[in-house]
Automatic annotation (TrEMBL):
Residue ranges annotated for the Core-binding (CB) domain, each copy included: 34-129
Keyword Iron: no
Organism: Georgenia yuyongxinii
Lineage, uppermost ranks: Bacteria, Bacillati, Actinomycetota, Actinomycetes, Micrococcales
Family the UniProt entry places it in: Belongs to the 'phage' integrase family.
Keywords for the protein's UniProt record, in alphabetical order: DNA integration, DNA recombination, DNA-binding
Entry keyword annotation includes DNA-binding: yes
Protein name: Tyrosine-type recombinase/integrase
Amino acid sequence: MQTYVYNRSHVRGLTPNPPVPIPDGLPFVLDDEMRPVEDLNAWLRSLRGRGCHSPRTWTGYADDVLAWARFLQSRDRWLFDDLDSLKDAVSDYREVRLQGDADEVFQVVGASAWNRAVSAMENFYGWAVEVGKISAPPFNYKVLRLPRYQRSSDTLKLNLARAKPGSPLATLRHLDGDYADMFIAVGLGGATPTGQPDDDFRGRLATRNRAMGELVRRSGLRRQEFSNLLVWEVPQPAGPFQDHISLPVPQKIAKGARARTTWITSTALEAVTDYVSLERPLHTDGSSWMPQRPLMVTDATRDGGTINGRWVRWSHLTIPQRRRLVAPDGGSGLLFVRSTGAPVSESNWRYTFNTAADRCRQFDTDFPTVTPHMLRHTFAVETLNELTRGALARAERLAELSGADPLLIAILRRKDPLLILRDLLGHRSLQTTEVYLALQDPARILTDAEIERLAEEEDFDAADLAGAS
């Protein structure tokens, strides 16, 4: 079984044109012989009526319930078997997804991801009960009695299949520096571990993928954000002595509609501009891609452009509008495009990342599974280390000049690394950002800060000093 996503533009070209009363972006499931799996498709078509209006939620629910269906198939069961059998299967499935199985067929997930899967399964079986497919959901519940002032009801049903969320660090996964370098250069870029071109590499769009990896690792953009960034919103390269360049994240593509400004390193920006100037035009210039109700762009600038004869700021465009932009020379106006010049679906990055990690395992069998959000976590950890080293070195120099306590100086100068990182990541609460503190290596930070101080005071080169130790 496999999920596919409905696209009205593909149906319009059929003759005769079949009436399909489902929205764009709704997933559907076909079996191995390309026949519809109606037990799942009927439920997916009902999602809008059950309060699920986001295509991202539809896709997530479809993936979670399809994984559950595959698990049942592997044990010669199906979605609507007898209730006791299904309850036993839920218990087994919970153990497999949270702790792993000997065959390693199903990916181990954390408590949060598992609980999202349980929510999808509850939605599915709620629908199944309503349409008479099954008598009751295959879950065990605990009924909690609550004071009326806390909820509209005096009882709360707790699904015992859910996992108790642990420490945020349990699911806060990032890549160490060497692995991050390897993932981008070898996995995404197709190089060998020594940095040389790999003649056996058969991947496509390596320049695009490597630029995307550098961008996310060095800016902390979320998948929704880098997938819908416009090519005209890429900042211009800075001078030779500027290591970080500001990168505005528009409100319309930011999580929670909270605009912010992050930064991108000059080396990462160089990778992005190389892609924009070298590989991207090969796929966009003269492209025949044309969306429904296209928004034709002319006279594009960094801030905005003329769209269908009217000048509009890019920051005012929603995600659906951005994905309908057609650049003056053809192809999508988004930064990252497919080989046809069309936009890259957000969900397609999952395949790109999985393929890149698989390639890295050819050289290191212990290489982990990588997601776009892991690169965002990597940005957070590396940036916090960098900010902390800078704050320590700066505070120590100020303390020596003034005789004050270094921590007091750092506070007075309002150079708190956590506050800076919070703003770069776009977190609402500082508490969300604080979880990265536990991932720091204090010994390494202090050693680097000491090297920087000695290098400045005694005119030593930091690299020579490190090599001599």
